[in-house]
Amino acid sequence: MEIRHYKPSDEKDWVRCRALSFLETAYFDNVLREKEHYENPSIELVAVSEGKIVGILDAECDTTENRVCTGKKEKGAMIWHIAVHPDFQRKTIGEKLLKELEKIAAQKQVMYLEAWTRDDQWVRAWYEKNHFKLVSSYLHIFMEGNELPKIEGNKSEMQLVQGWAHYTGENKEAVKEKFKRVHECVCYTKVL
Questions:
Q1: How confident is the model over 128-144, as pLDDT tens digits?
Q2: Among 72, 83, 142, 165, which residue's CB has the most CB atoms within a 10 Å radius?
Q3: CA distances in angstroms from 159 to 36, 143, 153, listed in the order given
Q4: Which residue stretches of the chain have pLDDT < 50?
Q5: pLDDT at 153 (0 to 100)
Q6: DSSP label at 44?
Q7: Cβ-based neighbours of 46, under 8 Å, separated by 6 or more
Q8: Structural domains of the chain ordered from first start
């Protein structure tokens, strides 16, 4: 297996790897049809085995303090995607991608990494095992049908059928009881 920089010709396999990797997570419906491109400098890595992309990692770097990252008053890098193809999980590919990111980030004078994830305990455990610290969280609420707020006006012209919201208040348990699909989105950081 080789860890290398992403190339534009990798896009189709990158999208497939991400889709399959996210399928069994709380991000199962966050489907991309093409790879994201970043406004700021980025570190985009792939893990390749037998000519196939089996792991991905994208991180966007701050050019000034808090341009991309949300937490600290120093230059950071936001991990937007880290994923390993399901057939290759539990083989330390994620750790190898992370180590390569850390090496390149240090050369770019990045002081810390930031990553947001949802409430998959195995994903949280992976971040914690790799020395990330949980620093904050909010709720991501998906609403359908009778869970949706009512819209004023002519109902024949517009009908809300799905929606989502962020909840940053203190009464998280009450919100979790009110809606069927609620994810806790958590922020992890790692000082380099």
A1: 999 999 999 999 999 98
A2: 83
A3: 31, 14, 10
A4: none
A5: 64
A6: E
A7: 3, 4, 5, 6, 10, 14, 17, 53, 55, 56, 57
A8: 2-131 (3.40.630.30), 139-181 (no CATH)
Question: Is residue 83 within 8 Å of residue 21, measured between CB atoms?
Answer: yes
Helix (H, G, I), strand (E, B) or coil at 115: strand
What six digits make up the tokens of 114? Answer: 């930031």
pLDDT of residue 101: 98
In 3D space, the residue among 133, 130, 54, 113 whose CA is nearest the CA of residue 87 turns out to be 54
Q: What is the pLDDT of residue 146?
A: 81
Residues 6-26: b if buried by 16+ CB within 10 A, e if exposed = beeebeebbbebbbebbeeeb
In this structure, are strands 133-144 and 181-191 parallel, antiparallel, or unpaired? antiparallel
Q: Residue type for 72, please? A: K
CB 58 within 8 A of CB 16: no
| Beta-strand pair 133-144/112-117 | unpaired
For residues 52, 98, 2, 5, the Cα torsion angle rounded to the nearest 10 degrees is: 80
